[in-house]
Design brief:
Blueprint: E1 3-10, H1 38-43, E2 45-51, H2 52-55, E3 70-74, E4 87-89, H3 92-102, E5 107-111, H4 114-122, E6 128-134, E7 155-161, E8 167-172
Parallel strand pairs: 1-5, 1-6, 2-3, 2-5, 3-4
Antiparallel strand pairs: 6-8, 7-8
Length: about 190
């Protein structure tokens, strides 16, 4: 099991537009669920791990965004209308333990903003950071990683061009990982 974060961002480093929408939604070349490599990425994932802020808007969505994935949410309380099959926990270490116990060998899509990604990276749980850099400049919005230590370090793995001028860049985070408290190294 690998925990993989995949985020789209503007060429000037913002993961949201100045009005708060995900960066990908501003790209005219993006076709929901069909472009920018998302289907390939999700094909190897069996679970989605996210924070409450990312999860709550899905509760009002007419279509469940993760129909074939187990869902784990870092939240201090269980949001109203959360489906029974969704696992919630306010402690990130405990949530990771529950995720690992349920895992059947597939990867995990770490969905969320910089704070959620920073939390799981600090625990040593983030295996890859996969960025889709869009050919757009926003000039504002939410930065990619305001919470990560600049010394975190990433190891370049690969890149490829995507439709419309976007570029996918994949980094390994393994060189900067610290072990989870009490977790054997074989569980990472």
């Amino acid at each position: 099991m690998k925990i993989r974060a995949r985020m789209s961002m503007s060429a000037d480093g913002y993961v949201t537009t100045p009005t708060g929408w995900p960066a990908l939604t501003a790209d005219p070349a993006f076709v929901s669920g069909e472009s920018h490599g998302i289907q390939e990425f999700l094909a190897g994932c069996e679970a989605a791990l996210m924070g409450r802020t990312t999860f709550e808007p899905a509760l009002a969505n007419s279509r469940w965004p993760w129909p074939s994935l187990d869902v784990f949410v870092l939240a201090s309380h269980r949001p109203a209308a959360t489906p029974d099959h969704v696992v919630t926990d306010g402690d990130p270490v405990r949530l990771l333990e529950r995720l690992r116990a349920a895992n059947r060998g597939g990867d995990v899509h770490l969905v969320g903003g910089p704070r959620t990604i920073g939390t799981f990276h600090a625990l040593g749980a983030l295996d890859t950071l996969e960025l889709v850099v869009l050919p757009l400049l926003f000039g504002g919005g939410t930065h990619l990683t305001p919470a990560l230590d600049p010394a975190a370090g990433l190891t370049f793995r690969r890149q490829r061009a995507l439709p419309g001028g976007a570029v996918e860049i994949v980094y390994s985070c393994e060189g900067s990982r610290s072990p989870l408290p009490g977790a054997p190294s074989s569980q990472r």
